Amino acid sequence: MSQIIDEQLSALLDGELPAEQEALLLRRLDTEPELREKLARFGMIGELLRDSSAPISALSVSGRVSAVIAAEDTSFEAPVRAAYSSSNRLSYFGAGIAASIAMLVMFNLSGPDNATRQPGMAAVAQSASPLHEHADVMAVDPARLTRYLVAHSQYTNSASRQLFDSHLAMAVNTDATW
Amino acid sequence: MSDKAEDQRLVERVQGGDKQAFDVLVLKYQHKIVKLVMRYVRDQSEALDVTQEAFIKAYRAIPKFRGDSAFYTWLYRIAINSAKNHIVAMKRRPMEYDLDLQESGGYETHAQLRDTDSPERVAQREELREALQTAIDSLPEELRVAIILREIDGMSYEEIAGAMDCPVGTVRSRIFRARDALDKAIRTYVGEAEENPEA
Predict the structure, then answer these.
(1) CB of B51 within 8 Å of any CB in chain A?
(2) Does the pLDDT at position B105 exceed 90?
(3) Based on the structure, what is the number of domains in chain A?
(4) CA end-to-end span of chain B
(5) Which domains are delineated in chain B?
(6) Sign of the dihedral through C-alpha B68, B70, B75, B77
(7) Domain range for residue A134?
(8) What is the SS3 string spanning chain B?
């Protein structure tokens, strides 16, 4: 059994372990320090083969780093959020588009008078009107719509969400529902 | 799987909350990073501290890592910055000599002037090198070839299987058996080094 695990350690180091075995072995590394030490020595062997001046003392680094990280109560956000742009200009731009779409949909569903008073939006109103036919079926909480649009917008941060919410508050005050 | 691809897989695990996956990345690159840092910070104890700090910085910043560059390239930059910051911090303390770090190579000159590699450490490394060489020479040829192709040439298991005309499973077994044999040969030297890191 030990030899099977040691062989898996060797394959893990090379990135050649199947995903499910990798997950299991990583969990074992957490609780079995001798496995971690062996993995560290396997790594060091490679370094020594490539460069005989590789420092042996480097073996101690992983234990020190691991101890610090284990003590940190870090919970990363889901990976998809890490890819989002943090540019404020893009955040405001994207939130602005989302807010505009929400407002247009809500204003247009409030009735034909609205389209008359705001001729500039006539084309959009026409394209949005089929939604009105289903208004009685699709009663959606505007706050939910906000959260959906913001969560699926690529350019958001907390500041732009506040901007969006303020636009939505204005839309809600028109008593538009769909 | 290429190094970049396997590292990216581990990075994604870390971003998903798997701290052990980061441990594997540390194990993989700790020697390279210590060696890199020691170009700037010659004192081994300080180099280990700076390396530890670099890895911890990398861990905390990993949610922002988008994979535009290879993980090692990104880590390399963090380590260099950590080493340079350490030197600047040391410069603020009273020192026997003065350096203009803006000169090219200024950071590395600092390291050379502070060379504290002890004779014991040099001798230890030489013994280890000889033990490793003897162990490699003693390996059966198929194990030696497999481990060299993997560690020196960086070939994947599939590529090695093609080169050696054997199944991937056989390659995996040969590489493991080679590592196991080398591990047994150098274990006593490594154990001594860990017990006396300041030697």
Answers:
(1) yes
(2) no
(3) 2
(4) 39
(5) 3-113 (1.10.1740.10), 119-195 (1.10.10.10)
(6) negative
(7) 80-172
(8) CCHHHHHHHHHHHHHCCCHHHHHHHHHHHHHHHHHHHCCCCCCHHHHHHHHHHHHHHHHHHHHHCCCCCCHHHHHHHHHHHHHHHHHHHHHCCCCCCCCCCCCCCHHHHHHHHCCCCCHHHHHHHHHHHHHHHHHHHHCCHHHHHHHHHHHCCCCCHHHHHHHHCCCHHHHHHHHHHHHHHHHHHHHHHHHHHHHCCCC
- Residue at which a domain ends, from A54, A71, A88: A71
The verdict on residue A177 lying in a domain is no
Q: Contact B176/A15, CB-based, under 8 Å?
A: no
Q: Which chain A positions have a beta carbon within 8 Å of B3's beta carbon?
A: 15
pTM for this prediction: 0.58
Instruction: Please report, in tens digits, the pLDDT of each residue of chain A (178 residues total).
Output: 689 999 999 999 999 999 899 999 999 988 898 999 899 999 989 988 887 666 777 778 988 998 888 887 666 655 444 444 445 555 555 556 666 666 666 656 554 444 444 444 444 444 444 444 444 444 556 666 666 655 555 545 555 555 545 554 554 455 444 4
Q: In this structure, is residue A15 part of a structural domain?
A: yes
A157 and A93 in a common domain:
yes
Chain B neighbors of A68, CB-CB under 8 A: 52, 56
- Is A146 found in the same domain as A121? yes
Q: How far is A68 from chain B (nearest CA, A)?
A: 8
CA-to-CA distance for A50 and A153, rounded, in angstroms?
47
For residue A34, count other CB atoms closer than 10 A to its CB: 8
Query: Would you call A29 and B23 a contact, using CB atoms and an 8 Å cutoff?
Result: yes
A58 and A95 assigned to the same domain: no
Same domain, A60 and A6: yes
Question: Are the Cβ atoms of A44 and B6 closer than 8 angstroms?
Answer: no
Task: Report the chain B residue with the minimal C-alpha distance to residue A16.
Answer: B1
